[in-house]
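Appendix C reproduces, verbatim, an entry submitted by the partner laboratory led by Prof. M.T., so that reviewers can inspect both the input and the predicted structure.
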Amino acid sequence: MQKVQNNPGGAAPKRPRSFVRNRRIARGYAFQVLYSLGFNPPDNPEELARIFSNANTIKDASLLEGEEVPPPARPEGFAWDLVYGVWAGSADLDRLIAAFSEGWKVERLGRVELTVLRMALYELKFNLDVPEKVVISEALELARQYADQKALAFINGILDSAARSMRGVPESDIQGA
């Protein structure tokens, strides 16, 4: 698993609109693959790659916004990095969730909430080129689509605390994401 180096200038470079949109679609795809792994987890990276490739269409057409269904996915790119990183690091990510959830046991979380939190914590920890606000905002967008609306504040609270702790971000810089 390759770590992304933080931008030495501080602020993330401005990305083209298509890049941001493609990352949102990739996050949606990664979410769907990771969510499905909760029902039938792979035993090894090769099986994970097969599952990723066989999940070759985005099941939720709302993520496509009228575009054609993408071709079969290959285990590469941003979506694959998220899927592999979250799958390989799920035990560590679960420990982070437990540490920031103040009394909640990871086993009590719903699969949707757990998947969203794992993905976002992975990005906060390893995708340092993605600003904290973006990570939290994208996680909340996934949660709005798939989770119980009551879970949004819980997810936001955990991610806000994690961003402050993991990246040393002042609270005022990530509030309201």
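Confidence is low (pLDDT under 50) at residues 1-13, 15-20. Additional entries are available on request from the coordinating office.
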